[in-house]
Amino acid sequence: MNTQRVEAGYLPGIGTDEVQWHALAFERGGQRLQVAVPQLTALQTHALAARVRAAAAQQLRPLAVADIIAIIDRAMARLLDRADPYRQQAEALLPLVSGYDAEMVRQGLTGLFKTFRAPQLRRFVAEDFANPGVLDGFQPAAKGGAVQAFGPGLLLHSWAGNVPALSLWSMVCGLLVKAGSIGKLASAEPLFAGWFARLLAEVHPPWADCMAVVWWSGAGEGGGGCADALYAEADTVIAYGGNAALDAIRQRLPVTTRFVPHGHRLGLGLVAAQALDSAKAPALARLAAWDVMRYDQQGCYSPHVFYVERGGAVAPRAFAGYLAAELANLQQRFPRAGLDLQEAAAVARWQQAVEWQTLSAPDSADMLLSGPDAQWAVAYADSLRPLAPTALQRTIQVVGVDALDSVLPAVAAQERFLQTAGVAAPPERLYHLAGLLGAAGVTRICAIGSMSTPEAGWHNDGRFNLLDLVRMVEIEQSAEAAAQPLASYAD
C-alpha cells in the first residue's frame, strides 16, 4: 500500500530544514496519508510571532476593509473553482483525513466558500459595525467625538478538527479586523489552514508574513515551549473544542489576554402541527435528515432532538418513521464516516439505553429504528423527554408533545449549552416560539434544513464575530475642543 506524504502548516521566514516535524497518519479505503506537522521551539515561536505582528502592522492594518474583502473574495473564487489546484487538493485529501464521504465534503466546501464571497463579507462586517468605516479610521461618534476599532496585533487561533475547513471562519475574522494571525492546527484536520494561508500569499503577496500556522500536541496541556510562547505573545486567543480543553487553555493565559472560546453546544428542532400534513411532513423530514447527516452531527449547530407536536395530519411517530427512511436514503448517497472504538461504544450505549426505556414501557408508542451496523438511528419517545445529547454519528431523538410551549422548561435546563434551534411553524408561532427559545438560552433560530449551514455573519454562540476581537479607541469631545486653540488658524 502506497503512502502519500504532505507537509502541513505555514511558516514564513522559517525553512523546512530548520523545523522538527511530527507525522500524523491517516488511512481510509486502502489509501494512506502521512501529514507532517511543524513543531517549533520557543525561540522559533517568539521570532515567528514578532514577524507576523510586524508584517500585519505594515501590510494589513493600513488597508481599507473594502480592499481586504476584495482580496479574500479572490481567494474564495479560486477555492470555488474545481480546476484550481488548492480546491483539487482539498477534495482529494480532506475526505481522507476526516473520514467523511467525499461527495459530502465537496458539497460542504462549496457551501462554506460561498459564504465568504464579497457580498457576504460586506454583510458580515455590517452585522457587527453600524459604520464599518470605524475599522479604517476615526469616525464620528453619536455622543460626540470620534471612535475607531483596532484589532489585536497578534491573534492566536486554536482549532478543532470535527468539521473540515472550520479554521476558515476565524482566519477570515482575523483578516477583517486586520490582525496578525497564528493558528494551531487540529490533529484531526491539519491541512486546510495551511493551504488557505499559502493561497492568500499567492493572491496578495504582501500578506505572506501576516499569518502563520503551527502545531503542538493537545489543546491546553501539550505543546511545550511553542504553546507557552504563543500564549504569552498573543493579545487575543480564539479557541474551538471540548470544554475541558478550553478550560485548560484559559488557565494558561495571562489575565490581560482576551479569550474567545467556542465549546460544546446542543441543537434542537421544533415542529408545529401545521407543518405535518401529508404533503409537508415528508419534505420536512427530508430537510431534518440533511441536518442530521451533515458531518455526522459533529458541528456545534447539529440537532440532537426534534420535538414534534401532535394535532397534525401526520403523527409525531409517523414523522420519526419518515426521518428514518430519509436517513437510510442518505446513507446510500453519503455513507457515514467509519467509527473508532470509542465512538462505536458511545453509539452502542446510546442505543442500549433507548432500548431499555422502550422495553420498560411496552404499552407506549416508543420505538427505535436503526440501519445496518447502526449507520443511523432514530429513537422515538411518546412523552416529553429532556433535551440531552445523543451519541452523534447520525443518532437522533424524536419526541412527541401535545404543545411546543411545554418543551421550553426541558430545553431551558440546558441553557449553558444551547445554540441552534430549527423551527417549522407558521409566522405568528415562529415569533412566539423564538421569544421563548431566546429566553431559554438559544442564540440562533433557523429553518429546519439550514441548521448545519449558518449564514455569513451569524452570531456564533450569541456573540459578535468581529466586535469581540477589537478594542474601541475614542477621541472625546474635550480633546477636540482643546485642540482648536492650538490650530494654525486660531486667533
Describe the structure.
The chain is α/β, with parallel strands linked by helices. It folds into two domains: 3-263 and 465-475, Aldehyde Dehydrogenase, Chain A, domain 1 (3-Layer(aba) Sandwich), CATH 3.40.605; 266-458, Aldehyde Dehydrogenase, Chain A, domain 2 (3-Layer(aba) Sandwich). Helix content is 39%, strand content 20%. The chain has helices spanning 42-60, 65-79, 85-98, 102-114, 118-128, 167-176, 192-203, 224-233, 243-252, 280-293, 316-333, 341-360, 408-412, 427-440, 477-483; strands spanning 3-7, 20-28, 31-39, 139-140, 146-150, 154-158, 180-184, 211-214, 236-240, 258-262, 266-271, 303-309, 367-370, 377-381, 395-401, 418-424, 444-446, 471-475. α1 runs parallel beside α8 (224-233) and α3 crosses α4. It is globular, with a radius of gyration of 25 Å. The mean pLDDT is 94.
Précis, in short:
By secondary structure, the chain is an alpha/beta fold. Helix content is 39%, strand content 20%. The protein has a seven-stranded mixed sheet with strand order 13-14-15-12-11-16-17, sandwiched between helices. A five-stranded parallel sheet has the order 8-7-6-9-10, with helices on both faces. Strands 1-3-2 form a three-stranded mixed sheet.
Which stretches of 5+ consecutive residues score pLDDT under 50?
Answer: none
Strand portion, in percent? 15-25%
Radius of gyration: 25 Å
Rough outline = globular
Tell me the span between the first and last alpha carbons.
86 Å
Tally of domains: 2
Main sheet: strand order: 13-14-15-12-11-16-17
